[in-house]
Design goal:
- By secondary structure, this protein is an alpha/beta fold.
- The chain has 8 helices and 5 strands, in the order βαααααβαβαβαβ.
- It has 2 domains: 129 residues, Rossmann fold (3-Layer(aba) Sandwich); 65 residues, Orthogonal Bundle (DNA polymerase, domain 1), CATH 1.10.150.
- Strands 3-2-1-4-5 form a 5-stranded parallel β-sheet, with helices on both faces.
- Helix 1 crosses helix 4 and helix 3 crosses helix 4.
- The two termini are 13 Å apart.
Length: 199
């Protein structure tokens, strides 16, 4: 049964890559509220289902998608900045995701590790610091570092390159369907962390 299983490192893995939001830290509910507060100011509603369907997409690209979907006339960068303002106000409320934190700490110094996120470098560093694991990652690939974001494989392929580990020997820990799709597209070992973090 799932609850008796432990989140673990695949024996084939020679390098570990972690998503950050929703994987290392439970920030997704905070992002959702930030989008909802911002959207309310712009006269539309972001539902939970809509938000999670775009999980893993950077804020600017998400803002562009929302602008098109709701046929609103706003500057996507201004919308994204406003959303990040709301997120920053509550980021301290995010709880670390314990099964993933355990994997990181147990494998520090044993396997090379990197992060691959759709967030900006500022928020990636801030989130990792609050989760108490920033020191374990020499390499962090962010939305600022690649042109094509999740579900494209570029974020994780860049992380593997920085680690010096072939993609097929990298295990990716992810919580979102788009992120898992990106890992599979990269030819990596994709691990959905969500079954290990419920209940």
């Amino acid at each position: 049964m799932i609850k008796e299983q432990q989140l673990s490192v695949d024996p084939r893995a020679k390098g570990l890559i972690f998503d950050i939001d929703g994987t290392i830290s439970d920030t997704m509910p905070i992002h959702l509220v930030a989008y909802q507060e911002t959207a309310a100011e712009y006269g539309f509603e972001v539902t939970s289902d809509l938000f999670y369907s775009m999980s893993g997409i950077p804020a600017l690209q998400t803002s562009m998608l929302l602008k098109a979907k709701f046929e609103k006339d706003f500057d996507p960068q201004e919308f994204a900045d406003r959303k990040e303002f709301y997120f920053l106000k509550s980021i301290h409320l995010a709880e670390p995701i314990i099964p993933v934190i355990k994997i990181i700490r147990e494998n520090a110094g044993k396997l090379p590790m990197a992060c691959g996120t759709g967030g900006t470098r500022f928020y990636a560093n801030k989130t990792l610091e609050l989760a108490g694991v920033r020191e374990y990652f020499e390499h962090i690939v962010t939305a600022d570092d690649v042109e094509n974001h999740k579900p494209h494989p570029d974020t994780f392929l860049k992380a593997a390159e920085l680690l010096g580990v072939p993609p097929e020997s990298c295990q990716v820990f992810e919580d979102s369907p788009l992120g898992l799709q990106a890992a599979l597209s990269a030819g990596m070992i994709a691990t959905d962390i969500t079954p290990f973090c419920q209940g």
